[in-house]
Specification:
heterodimer, A: alpha/beta, Rossmann fold, 6-stranded mixed sheet, 23 helices, flat, B: 436 residues, alpha/beta, 11 helices, 15 strands
Chain lengths: 1072, 436
């Protein structure tokens, strides 16, 4: 495939550039940043769609104008078909040149993908550099990978990766390494062993279960045996427990038999006797108590009858009257107390208030003070006047104080102005002087600059004059004498020769000689005259110019001298002024300008002084006005004060006459009058309450007297009576009266009780006699006369009953032990038949048997439990399942590993076989082609050979000189390595296309690392490659461009084979 | 029995406590679920029979998986029989090649309503609800390898009422199973039974409608070959009278706890890695939805030619540690209706024009020619052995476990492995290094 022409409508820097491409080699030359790489990428991009996965976020080739990338190439395939490929936006579209709709360019349209294209057909400097240093295996690896259409693939590395993986998976016969398969086999063996164990355990389950059943049956038998033994043991234990009861029962029966034949005892006889005895005792005690009570009552009545309190009943009316008045008396006492306190408080308040009005006032002053309406009006008028005068005086003083503060501020301001003026005045004076000097300096500097320029101009002119003079001196007209002599001598010689020849030969030559002599002589004459004239004229002119020049030089010297003197004078003046200004003398205009700027800045002090002066003048006027104003204000304040004093004197006089204190202010008078009136009212109220207190006091005294009389009466009777004669004393009197009444009542009741007691004592005596009679009847019924006999009989009866009860008790015990009457009967027979020792012996033996049996059962239960647990564990054992699962997993892994191993093994096998075949059959052809290119590059100095070695194929370089020394990679120079690489790449690219579409080679500044000689060799090789594939070579070196051009001329290639473009900032200029 | 009909559950090939195969690197929790799966599946079948108040429960062989019948499995099985017996459901068992009568038994204490047929064809009266309704015939394998046509022994044994026959056999030459007790449909028909309860085939199948001949398949799939729904048949049959023969209907009832599925995913047209991951997620969602809340073990078969081929060639990308499979399965961990990828079978091809490459005069061309010369003309196993022999490996391969695997490789297997290896190498050649 070849690109016939191209057009870049929009791609990076390019916008509307293109042209035809030669079928062989097209060289693009451009400086750096001209767009060379962009164009190169345009060709790569348009031939192969960009893969989506490699899309860059920011495409560096987006057109600068912001539109989508675009361009077109027309291509011609080897079979003659022609297409047009268009880059439109992000898509590559292809259309046949014969027409038809454009379709998207398939990624493999050229039978290879973009990556392969990049690695085979597009190569640049970086590829070359990345190949150093080379080594033999790398050369081979890259050779193969490139041969396969690969980028950086390394076949040996690929093979070693496969081998490593293969060994990692499975390495049969190698016992040392542990491959994955080997590990799995080991794990499987281990699992199988464990499976065997578990299966064995499972197999024993049925036997264990049968054993378990047997054990359970044995357990049951023993449990039954134990039951029988325990029943017998229980029976023996009962016999032993029942024997004491049986013995007791025998004894009871014997004693009961002994009490037979005793007379009957009346039913409950003893209880009845005891009851009668208790009744008699109770009645006797009751009689004694009644008699005691009677005595006590009689004594008490006698004492009561003599109580003095009973006398109170005689003052009943007086006491009841006092009790009736007790509430009034209590109220009066309280009221009197309150009234006394009120009067006391009111008196104190009144006195305090009176003292507040006037400290020396008495009640009389209060009542006599003038509080008439006229007095109040007078006070009100006086107060108003006094307030007006005080306000006037206060305001005047306040204004005066403010005015004085303002005046002080102004004075301070004036003082600071004066200070600043003094400072500014000095600065202004200095600035004025300096400014004047600066102006002088500026004038001097200006003059000096002018003079110096003038001097420079004069010096230049002087130099010019000197040069002119020198030129003039060199221009002195040459005298014509020597020329004339020379011409004349020549003519004489010619004429002499001709004369001599004519004399000798007399042939026409002589005639010619004479003619020549004649014309020569004529010419010499004419020439001499003209020369002479010209010389004279020139000499005159020269002399005049010389004179003129001299006079100008003199004049110039004088003028220069004068100017220089002036310059020196001005310089001295400048230095002097600079000295005065205490600065270094300005040399340049910029320095002078800077000084003037500074000087202008100094002038601000003068301006400030003027401003301050004006302000000072204004300040003086203001201060004078302020002083006069202050004096007027002071006079006004003094007048108001005098008027106020007069008014106050009049007021004090009136106060004295009206009975008031002199310090009373007129405005307080109006407020004082209500207070005076209030105090007068309070005085009246105080007097009323004092009268009421007197009345109450009289009443209380009368009650006290009545109480005193009664208290004296009671005290005499021995009754306690309170000392204080208040309401409590009335209550005490009332209580005493109640007690006297109660005492009288109780006395009559007591008399009635004494009568009743006497009657009760008589009745009790009768009952005692009846009881004695009943006891006698009871004794007689038992055949006894006395209580002792009766009681002996009762004792015998009690013993017989106790024996019967004991027998019943023991019989119940036996029934409880043996359960039923039959049981008891059976036991009685056994008690009678067997002695206790027999039973005890039997029981001991049975107990031993029970213990032995129980131990046996425990042992059996333990064994059964263990076995049951074992059986249960086996039944729930998941290990078999787990192990089978695990083994299946291992088998799966083994299968996976094994299959991968086969897969890798076969892949490696195919690679190795292919490699051997490739090395054997194909590689030499590629090497031969590469050797051709290397010969071009090295001017046939080297050839390239393949060599089989231990590591496989390697490439060596053989010298074509005598000796044909071979060099392997380590002996290659850097330049030679680059040449070998380039020749191999070119060979691969050109051979690749042999059976498929040969695609254009895009070469990027490949020759930049070669020296000049090698560059030419490489160019020849590239030229040669161009015969197989279209070559687009990009370079930034003009020399490379020229090498190809001269090579093209030397080789006289066909017109369409070589072309060139110069790239300048996105523009393409066809090279001539 | 209701309205002159009997109902029963027909199950077979329980393979209790047998391991799942084809799985590796499974988590302990998943392992626990799978180890219990056969138990739970049978439990489901028993519960179904109890819920439906079925009259009978038929089991036609392969209750256990050969010698690895654990005590645990046997105890469990007896417990389930006890459940059925307690509910008055009679159980008939005919043993198969995996659990013949000669096999080891932990316990022979069957519950009262359970009948296990002996090593001769037995015909027993079928009594339901106190009245005889028909005859049940059955045969148990006395030992594993019974190659005789046992179906012939059932001929002429038809009894009164409805006739049910239980036999573990390879009827009509089913592929993929040992040819035990082989028989034809005609042999079975000749016995004039009303229902043939068959076992041995692991796929649920009704071989014949009249009379009904049914393989319920195994009750729980244990590998990718046992994909799809697994369970029992619930059968309803009318009792015959003098005029009409017995007629029956069958209903398949899934009982499996975990289901196996295999799905193909083509990478053609996938431009980016994300396309693949999205397709895988979509596939997972579909499988989960169709699983109806039941966990699924999924095999993904990647096919097609596309640029993602190279991605898959990265070592461990699909199945290695932190690879696609592991990441996918980690996400599913803990879900009750998880979709667990059992394997990602990669059968994709690079987006290369291999014919053009193979025709090229370059190394790649030579390589592809070499691969093609291997694959062309068949006899791949012979060639493989030759290569191994040539490399001196063959003699060193251990006879146990490994060598049988090589011998078991089919032509298709070797072709697949050779292609996979060569594509990997090609990828390395074209990319620089393998998998880069």
């Amino acid at each position: 495939m070849k690109i016939s022409d191209f057009y870049v409508s929009n791609f990076g820097i390019f916008s509307g550039a293109g042209g035809p491409l030669s079928k062989g080699l097209t060289v693009f030359y451009g400086e750096n940043e001209s767009g060379k790489t962009t164009l190169m990428n345009f060709f790569r991009r348009i031939l192969f769609s960009r893969e989506k996965r490699t899309r860059l976020k920011g495409n560096p080739y987006n057109p600068f104008n912001g539109s989508a990338p675009g361009g077109t190439v027309r291509i011609a395939m080897e079979d003659g078909r022609e297409y047009q490929i268009t880059l439109e936006g992000g898509k590559n579209l292809i259309a046949s040149s014969e027409g038809g709709l454009p379709t998207e360019l398939p990624p493999d349209f050229f039978s290879i993908n973009r990556d392969v294209y990049e690695s085979i057909f597009a190569m640049g400097l970086s590829d070359m550099q990345s190949l150093t240093p080379l080594n033999s295996s790398d050369v081979a690896a890259r050779f193969f990978s490139a041969g396969a259409g690969l980028g950086s693939a390394s076949l040996p590395r690929l093979l070693s990766t496969f081998e490593a993986r293969e060994k990692e998976l499975f390495n049969p016969g190698n016992g040392r390494t542990s491959s994955a398969v080997k590990k799995l086999l080991a794990a499987m063996d281990e699992t199988d062993d464990r499976l065997k164990e578990v299966r064995q355990v499972n197999a024993g389950w049925r036997e264990k279960k049968a054993s378990l059943k047997e054990m359970e049956e044995a357990c049951e038998t023993k449990r039954r045996e134990l039951g029988v033994l325990k029943t017998r043991l229980d029976a023996l234990e009962l016999l032993e427990k029942g024997r004491p009861s049986w013995n007791v029962l025998q004894d009871l029966f014997r004693r009961l038999r002994e009490l037979e034949g005793i007379a009957d005892f009346p039913e409950n006889g003893l209880a009845r006797l005891d009851s009668l005895n208790r009744e008699a005792e109770r009645l006797t005690a009751e009689l004694a108590a009644t008699e005691d009570a009677l005595r006590s009552e009689e004594e008490d009545w006698t004492v009561r009858e003599k109580d003095p309190l009973l006398d109170c009943l005689g003052f009943r009316e007086n006491i009841e009257a006092l009790e009736h008045e007790s509430e009034q008396f209590r109220t009066s006492l309280l009221r009197k107390k309150l009234l006394d306190e009120e009067i006391k408080g009111a008196k104190e308040n009144f006195n305090k208030n009176l003292a507040h009005i006037c400290s020396w006032w008495t009640e009389e002053h209060l009542l006599a003070a003038d509080v008439s309406a006229e007095a109040i009006a007078f006070a009100r008028e006086t107060a108003r006047k006094a307030e007006d005068l005080e306000r006037k005086k206060g305001e005047g003083e306040k204004s005066l104080a403010q005015w004085n503060r303002l005046r002080d501020d102004r004075k301070g301001e004036a003082l600071s102005l004066e200070k600043e003026m003094a400072t500014v005045e000095n600065r202004a004076a200095r600035a004025t002087t300096r400014w004047e000097k600066l102006n002088s300096l500026r004038s001097v500097f200006s003059d000096l600059s002018d003079e110096e320029e003038e001097v420079s101009a004069l010096e230049e002119a002087e130099k010019n004059l000197a040069a002119e003079r020198e030129e003039l001196d060199g221009d002195v007209p040459a005298p014509s004498g020597p020329l004339i002599g020379l011409v004349s001598g020549l003519l004489l010689a010619v004429a002499g020769g001709a004369a001599y020849q004519g004399w000798l030969t007399s042939d026409p030559i002589w005639i010619f000689g004479f003619s020549a002599l004649f014309f020569a002589s004529a010419l010499a004459f004419l020439a001499h005259r003209d020369q002479r004239r010209k010389y004279d004229a020139a000499l005159r002119t020269w002399t005049k110019r010389t004179e003129d020049m001299e006079s100008r030089q003199e004049e110039m010297a004088l003028q220069l001298e004068s100017r220089r003197t002036r310059v020196e004078r001005l310089q001295a003046l400048r230095e002097e002024l600079a000295g005065e200004l205490n600065i270094s003398a300005p040399r340049f205009q910029s320095e002078m300008d800077s000084l003037l700027t500074e000087g202008e800045a100094d002038n601000t002090a003068l301006e400030r002084f003027t401003v301050l002066d004006e302000r000072m003048r204004q300040m003086g006027g203001v201060l004078a006005r302020m002083d006069s104003e202050a004096a007027a204000m002071e006079a006004e304040v003094s007048g108001a004060a005098a008027e106020l004093e007069t008014l106050l004197n009049t007021w004090r006089e009136w106060l004295r006459n009206a009975g008031f204190g002199e310090d009373l202010a007129p405005r307080d008078m109006e407020g004082l009058v209500p207070r005076i009136l209030q105090l007068r009212s309070e005085l009246e109220s105080l007097r009323t309450r004092t009268r009421e207190a007197k009345e109450l006091s009289d009443y209380i005294d009368s009650v006290h007297r009545r109480l005193k009389d009664l208290s004296d009466c009671f005290r005499k009777g021995g009754e306690p009576f309170p000392e204080t004669l208040d309401v409590g004393a009335i209550r005490t009197l009332a209580v005493l009266l109640r007690r006297a009444e109660e005492s009288g009542g109780r006395l009559s009741v007591q008399k009635r009780d004494v009568d009743l007691l006497r009657k009760a004592a008589e009745e009790t005596r009768e009952k005692i006699a009846e009881t004695d009679k009943a006891k006698g009847e009871l004794f007689r019924s038992a055949g006894e006369e006395t209580e002792e006999g009766f009681r002996s009989l009762a004792a015998l009866e009690r013993e017989r009953n106790a024996l019967k009860s004991a027998i019943q008790q023991e019989e119940k015990v036996l029934l409880g032990l043996f359960g039923s009457d039959d049981g008891v009967e059976k036991a009685r027979r056994e008690f009678a038949a067997r002695p206790a020792e027999d039973v005890r012996e039997e029981r001991r033996k049975v107990e031993e048997n029970v213990r032995a049996l129980q131990q046996e059962m425990e042992d059996l239960a333990d064994s059964r439990g263990r076995l049951a647990l074992e059986v249960e564990q086996i039944a729930g054992d998941e290990r078999l399942s787990e192990l089978l699962f695990a083994r299946k997993e291992m088998e799966q892994k083994l299968d996976d590993h094994f299959r991968e191993w086969i897969s890798v093994l076969l892949a490696r096998h195919f690679l190795e076989v292919s490699k051997a075949r490739h090395e054997r059959e194909r590689q030499p052809e590629v090497i031969l082609r590469a050797a051709e290119y290397l010969a071009f590059m090295t001017d046939n100095r080297y050839t390239l050979l393949s060599q089989e070695g231990e590591k496989g194929l390697s490439v060596v370089v053989e010298e074509n000189e005598a000796g044909r020394t071979r060099k392997d990679e380590v002996k290659w120079s850097s330049g030679l390595a680059d040449q070998v690489y380039l020749s191999m790449r070119l060979a691969l690219a050109t051979l690749w296309g042999r059976n498929s579409e040969p695609l254009p080679l895009i070469l990027d500044d490949l020759l930049v690392r070669f020296d000049e000689g090698r560059q030419r060799g490489a160019a020849e090789a590239i030229f040669e490659a161009g015969r197989h594939n279209q070559v687009l070579l990009f370079t930034c070196q003009r020399s490379t461009f020229d090498i190809f051009r001269s090579l093209g001329e030397e080789r006289e290639t066909s017109p369409g084979f070589l072309s060139g473009y110069i790239i300048e900032r996105g523009k393409l200029i066809p090279a001539a | 029995m209701k309205d002159g009909q009997i109902t029963f559950v027909h199950s077979a090939d329980l393979h209790l406590d047998s391991p799942f195969s084809g799985l590796s690197d499974i988590s302990p929790s998943l392992g626990s679920i799978l180890r219990k799966a056969t138990f739970r599946a049978f439990e489901n079948a028993v519960s179904f029979a109890i819920r439906k108040e079925a009259d009978l429960f038929l089991i036609t062989g392969d209750i256990y998986d050969g010698e690895d019948r654990s005590v645990r499995a046997q105890v469990f099985f007896l417990a389930q029989l006890k459940r059925l017996s307690e509910k008055g459901i009679a159980v008939y068992i005919a043993l198969g090649n995996h659990d013949p009568l000669s096999g080891w038994e932990a316990d022979r204490d069957f519950p009262p309503l359970v009948t296990r047929f002996g090593a001769e064809v037995e015909s027993l009266p079928l009594v339901i609800g106190g009245s005889r309704v028909g005859t049940v015939h059955g045969y148990s394998y006395p030992y594993r390898e019974v190659t005789e046509n046992i179906a012939l022994r059932f001929a002429g044994r038809r009894g009164e009422g409805i006739n049910l026959a239980l036999l573990h056999c390879n009827a009509a030459g089913r592929k993929g199973h040992e040819n035990y007790a082989p028989c034809s449909l005609e042999d079975l028909k000749a016995a004039r039974m009303d229902y043939w309860a068959l076992g041995h085939g692991h796929t649920a199948e009704v071989l014949c409608e009249d009379p009904l001949m049914v393989y319920p398949g195994n009750i729980q799939g244990r590998n990718i070959r046992e994909s799809g729904k697994k369970g029992v048949f619930y059968v309803t049959m009318t009792l015959p009278d003098e005029k009409t023969a017995s007629r029956g209907t069958v209903e398949f009832v899934p009982c499996d706890v975990v289901r196996w599925r295999s799905e193909e995913l083509s990478i053609e047209g996938f431009e980016r890695d994300e396309d693949f991951f999205t397709a895988l997620d979509d596939l997972r969602d579909d499988v989960r939805r169709e699983g109806g809340g039941r966990p699924t073990l999924l095999r993904v078969l990647l096919t097609g030619r596309g640029r993602l081929y190279r991605l898959f060639q990265r070592p461990g990308f699909l199945s290695g540690p932190h690879g696609v499979k592991e990441a996918f399965n980690d996400e599913e961990e803990g879900k009750s209706d998880f979709v667990h990828i059992e394997e990602i079978l990669e059968k994709t091809a690079p987006p290369l024009d291999l014919d053009t490459l193979a025709a090229g005069d370059h190394f790649t061309g030579d390589f592809l020619k070499e691969v093609r010369s291997f694959l062309d003309g068949g006899e791949l196993r012979k060639k493989l052995f030759a290569i191994l022999d040539e490399k001196g490996i063959l003699a060193k391969i251990p006879a146990r476990e490994v060598l049988p695997r090589i011998e078991a490789l089919t032509e298709e297997d070797i072709s697949f492995l050779a292609n996979r290896g060569s594509w990997s190498a090609l990828s390395g050649l074209l990319e620089g290094e393998e998998g880069q």
